[in-house]
Amino acid sequence: MKYEGSIINGFPIVNDVVLYNEKNEGIKLKAIIDTGAYENYLALSAIETLLLKKIQDTFTIHPIEGRMPVSEFAAGLIIQDFNFGHIFLRQMLNIEYPVDFIIGCKFLSDKTFTYSGANNIFIIEW
Asked: DSSP assignment, residue 35?
C-alpha cells in the first residue's frame, strides 16, 4: 500500500486522515508528519470531540521546555481508506499548531517514508 501527499512550506501534509473512537465515531483531520516527534499528538479539541478516554498520564521531552506532563489516549486511524487500527496519541501541547494531528516517527518505524523537497511530494509505503 502507498500514500502520496504534498509538501507545503516544507511540511508533509496528510489530508486523508480519519481518527475514530471506540464507538467507531470518526472525524476527518489534516495531519502533519513531524520527523522531529517520536510520538503522535492530537489537539485537545479533537480529543474532546471524539470523547477519547485517557489511558494514562505520562511525560514528554520538549526541546525547549524540557520534561513536561502529558496525557495519553488511543484512537483508531484511517489514512486514505486503509485502517491502521488503534494507535496511541498524546495531547498536543502547543495549542497554536497549524493542524490538529501530528504523526510522529513511531508510526513510521515499520514503513518506508520518502521525502522529496525538490518535487514537493512525500510517500509512505507499508
From this structure: T
